[in-house]
Amino acid sequence: MSYRGYEAVIGIEIHVQLNTQSKMFCSDSTQFNAGDNENTSPVSVGMPGTLPVVNKKAIEFAIKTGLALGCQIRKKSVFARKNYFYPDLPKGYQISQYDQPLCEHGTITFKVGDQQKTVSITRAHLEEDAGKSNHQGDFTMINYNRAGIPLLEIVTGPDMRTPQEAAEYGRTIRQIVRYLGVCDGNLEEGSMRCDCNVSVRKAGSEKLGTRTELKNINSFRFVEKAIEYEIERQIDMVERGEKVLQETRLWDPDKNKTFTMRSKEEAQDYRYFPDPDLLPLIVTEELIQRMKADLPELPIARKNRFVAEHGLPEYDAGVLTAESDLAQFYEETAKVSGNFKGASNWIMTELLRELNNNNLEINDSPITPKNLGLLIGMIDKGTISGKIAKAVFLDMWKDKKSPEEIIKEKGLVQISDPSTVEKIIDEVLTANAQQVEDHKTGKKKNLFGFFVGAVMKASKGQANPEVVNQILQKKLNG
Amino acid sequence: MNLTRATITEIVEAVKAKSVSAKEVTAHFLKRAEELNPKLNAFTSFNVNAVSQAEEIDARIARGEDPGPMAGVPFGIKEMLCTKGLVTNAGSKILQNFIPPYDATVVARLKKAGVVITGKLNQDEFAMGSSNETSYFGGVKNPWNLDCVPGGSSGGSAAAQAARLCAGTIGTDTGGSIRQPASFCGIVGVKPTYGRVSRYGIVAYASSLDQAGPMVSTVKDAALTLEVISGHDEKDSTTSQRKVPRWSQELSSNIKGMKIGLIKEYMQGGLHADVQKTVDNAVDALKKMGAEIVEVSIPMTEYAVPVYYLVAASEASSNLARYDGVKYGYRAEFQNLSAVELEDFYGKTRGQGFGKEVKRRIMLGTYCLSSGYYDAYYNKAGQVRRMIMNQYLEAFKNCDIILSPVTTSPAFKIGERVSDPLTMYLNDIFTTSTNLAGLPGMSVPFGMSSEGLPIGIQLTATHFEEQDMLNVGFALEDASPVKGKVPHVI
Predict the structure, then answer these.
(1) Candidate from A90-104, A393-407, B450-464 with smallest mean pLDDT
(2) Containing H/E element for B26?
(3) Which of A35, A319, B3, B321 is the least crowded, having the fewest Cβ atoms under 10 Å away?
(4) Which of B125, B127, B251 is nearest to B188 (CA)?
(5) Residues of B recognised as catalytic
(6) Does residue A344 surpass a pLDDT of 70?
(7) What confidence tens digit (pLDDT) does each residue in A137-190 have?
(8) Given CA atoms A257, A261, A266, A272 in this order, what sign does their dihedral have?
(9) Mutate to test the interface with A, among B86, B319, B341, B348 (most CBs of A within 10 A)
């Protein structure tokens, strides 16, 4: 991709908040809605003499994520201290990993439009989050609830070339961590944070340009826009003969612009050194194997399976595998109904529409996959018509009942018995003698549809349309 | 019973036998401490609840409950160790009013064993010093000669114990801070193997070197106290899972056939004559008891002091970053806080809160860890440190215990070295390598200078072999020419 003869180079760092019950190095709760500084202890506020102890669950989550990203898991990794002063950093240093991260050398492949894109994962390392400063007028209030929450920082190589690739990479990571159940992937609440390094260079040049870092972008749509803007801004500067400054920039979604947060000209020296309070982290082969065995089918594999084995169109398979829970819902529905395409269609149109309208997640669906599967089965068996089924579906949504119950209560079983249908047809034809005459003389065209509608109406929609068609055909055109 | 001179073991027996109450014991030592402390400045604060806590021990005994292996023994605790509800200042202005809401694991274990905490003991600021002269709360005086330093950094513990202001004390040792003051004050001080005792709740100076240990009057008291405070702690990842032996019960002065190593590099002269004589006497005594004396070599030991100061200062520069005036502790006064730049807030608070020596080490450590210098200093120091440890392990293939002086001279005069940090640092020449190698070490009184100042002998064992070390200490204690000698304040 070329922009006015330039090429963009993009690398991304994503901080994934691991949703463990307790913090990275102490037993404080990680509950999201706790009162200010409620989730703290002498350890998390850095009181004298307190010491960190690693959270095993966080290690497991990190290994799982590393494996899902094709990383090698280091048997020995080291926690290091990153030293800097800031009021929301209680100890004056952050415990992180530096030269020996837990996961490294991974790759991830995803689709951008029709193109496959592979991005290298340089490393994924564990660290603790800082607290949160709330600037209120002249004062700053600090909430340490977040201090010590485990983060996995996933770092790519400078492998992306377009804003679309960057955004798609981010969505792919979010999808994976959600599939793994290690993070809810919520950018707005900050449980996932995305920093993009962007530079431009003349197309064909090997030398990297000066990069800027775009921080705290709270949606992947904005990631795309911010990078788009940043590429154009940098090219403009280079074209004007100006120098791009190495700095951290923020995205203003109202103005559709990036702006300077702080200059990195004086690079901070974090004085990293191995944390003497923690032994090197030793991961056994047994644990790695256990985590591997515990990995769920990942989104791309699942999508491919839905296409290859269920015969779903690629688009449909993509929608259904966007979320692990949705894919699970589909699989259960398909199993009960015995109809892959039917299950897919009903979920993609009716169910997703209702969920969206009511702002619900798939797990909150009042209709269970079993009941939806039964409904589809009843259509396939001819018990009800597709049209009735849509009404039954809405009743199922409202009343949380099974389709059988609703059909029974409302007497909605389809009328397929030819003699019963014929009786209804005869009544309709008698009542509309003039139209029958017009039809037969050819005075008016296409009256057949009118009669079908009238019969369906007279049967309250319960007449089997196929049977209606056949008999009407015989009576009117025979 | 003469409570002042009773050992911990004797006090526990008497309290359990109800021949004396824990309350009486505590009241006795508190009274003594309050009377004598103005002379020594060993205690920084007293526990106003000590007597009522002693009464609880008595109540437990009255109810027939097990009051613990150290029932009713009054202890003073170095300011480095957090004590729930009692000010813990680490000898620094920056923590002068800090009251921790938790006990250090060592303190919790002592309390559980029936110990009564009578107060907190003075020390060099953040344990950075060898003379107790860097304390924000004033220097401590040596009970044997009030013009002399008690040593440091656990000077308050050593002085309080030597003057029997309590029945036992706890100190911490990063580069000799238990052994050197124990030697200067004529008491027994033990630095356990690194990882033997939990560091949780102990104000961190240099995390990879710090260990707490007993500073008491006899080797047996040291063994008993060490038993109580040792063992794995889930709050400290660096503690060992090893089982804690029953050192006090296994204690034996039969050292026949044991191999005692003397470090060649330590025998190149330069020792104060009385220190040299004390070492020679100890070697003779051990020979007489059937020990074999062998020479060992630890060539890298000459780098121990610079390596120690690089490692300790580097870790300290990071460990002390948390004292920033934001969350607790001292905060500089500002006319209009909202107009203050963050950097000035930190600068003023830390500038006023830390003393000169602490600032010196923070700067030294910050420099060593800086990009571009890290490899030359911190990393290189780590490499030399590993070599020192390997040479020790090699030496321990040929001997069970290494015997050496604790310091080059007995206690020096107050003020004598305070303006010369380099001479002060060299005072640690025989003690730092033990910490760098993570080995257990102890000081046992064995001599007296011509001026009447105590001189200790240093014993070092290989990792986790405290028993051998305590046994040799026990044997030396028994043969000591200064056995039973106490400062005239007693």
Answers:
(1) A393-407
(2) helix B22-40
(3) A35
(4) B251
(5) 78, 153, 177
(6) yes
(7) 888 899 999 999 999 999 999 999 999 999 999 999 999 999 999 999 999 888
(8) negative
(9) B319
Strand, coil or helix: what is B359?
A: helix
Query: E-strand spans in A84-189?
Result: 93-97, 103-112, 115-128, 132-136, 139-143, 150-156
User: Token digits for A66?
Assistant: 């590393």
Contact between residue A157 and residue A149 where contact means Cβ atoms under 8 Å apart:
no
Please give the Cα distance from B77 to A257 (Å, whole number): 60
Q: At B196, list the tokens.
A: 């033997």
The pLDDT-based confidence of B316 (bands split at 50, 70, 90) is very high
**Share of residues in chain B with pLDDT > 90 (%):** 94
- A49 and A165 assigned to the same domain: yes
- The CATH number of domain B3-258+405-479 is 3.40.50.1820: no
Tell which of B197, B205, B240, B326 to mutate to test the A interface (max A CBs under 10 Å).
Answer: B326
Question: What 8-state DSSP symbol labels residue B198?
Answer: -
Is there a contact between A269 and B370 if contact means CB atoms under 8 Å apart? yes
**Domain residue ranges in chain B:** 3-258+405-479
Residue A442 has pLDDT above 80, yes or no: no
Query: What residues of A are in contact with residue B386 (Cβ under 8 Å)?
Result: none
Same domain as A466, residue A332: no
What digits encode the pLDDT tens for the residues A265-294?
Answer: 566 899 999 999 999 999 999 999 999 999
Co-location of A267 and A377 in the same domain: no
Contact between B308 and B316 (Cβ < 8 Å): no
Q: What 3-state DSSP class applies to A112?
A: strand
> CA-based Rg of chain A, rounded to a whole angstrom?
30
Q: What is d(CA A241, CA B400) in angstroms, rounded to the nearest whole number?
A: 74
Q: How far is CA A463 from CA A79, A393, A429, A450, B77, in A?
A: 72, 18, 16, 15, 92
Structural contact between residues B99 and B120, judged by C-beta atoms closer than 8 angstroms:
no
CA-closest candidate to residue A226, choices A262, A261, A259, A193: A259
Best probe of the B interface among A27, A47, A79, by most B CBs < 10 A, is A47
pLDDT tens digits for B217-227? 999 999 999 99
With CB atoms and an 8 Å threshold, state whether B326 touches A87.
yes
Same domain, A266 and A384: no
Count chain A–chain B contacts defined by CB atoms under 8 A.
Answer: 104
Q: What are phi and psi of A98, to 5 degrees?
A: -120, -90
Q: Closest-CA residue in chain B for A86?
A: B342
Mean pLDDT, rounded, for A454-472: 86
**Same domain? A124 vs A196:** yes
**CB count in 10 Å sphere of residue A51:** 24
Looking at the complex, does the CB of residue A269 fall below 8 Å from at least one CB of chain B? yes
What are the structure tokens assigned to B177, written together?
Answer: 């801070």
pTM, whole model, 2 decimals? 0.91
Distance from CA of A204 to the nearest CA of B (A): 34
Q: Give contacts of A50 with chain B, Cβ < 8 Å.
A: 102, 200-201
Enumerate residues 421 to 460 of chain A having a beta carbon within 8 A of any beta carbon in chain B. Answer: none
Last residue of a domain, one of A234, A263, A289: A289
Q: Which two tokens stand for residue A373?
A: 């599967």
